[in-house]
Amino acid sequence: MKKMGVEQALYWVKAIIFQGGRLLIAEKIEYHNYTITRMEEQFFLNAVNKSIRWSKDLRIQGVLTSEINSFLSTSSIAKLVRNKREHDEEFFGSKQKKETLSDASDPTSNVKMLVGQSITVCRNGRILLGGTVDVMEVLDAAVVLERYLRTEQHNIWKNDPMWDEKSLGQYLAPEGLIAK
Length: 180
Prior knowledge:
By secondary structure, the chain is mainly α. It is built from seven helices and five strands; from the N terminus they run αααααβββββαα. It is elongated.
């Protein structure tokens, strides 16, 4: 299970990096299309949410505990933002559930700002999804975690008997069957 967990966590952390890059580009386009930007934000939050789930599973197994804790410290709030955006019809549709607002106040000013999870705040060159998920912070944490996960993946591969020279032959086609 450790091998699968590392592979999946690595896959989703790489998805954060990929999708985060797309989101940063979409936000920087002058006169950007709100619908496209909104989709990029949701896909980014989905990648973060999947990374959180697989990372927590690895942590339970005792894999990269401190590195995962560091990643989770910057990304955990993304689950709340993702879930509220994923189920926005419950808050803005006929059900009209009451939404808890998040404090998105600027710590460098006296301005107090409470926002819903559907709001994206752009402040001082930072993108804050739901006023709380700092895209650059999560991206930076994902890049660091990806390095640790890749090292863990390579350690698993090194100890996997499938990659042993004696065993390798059974996974490759005999030389005579390969078309030249």
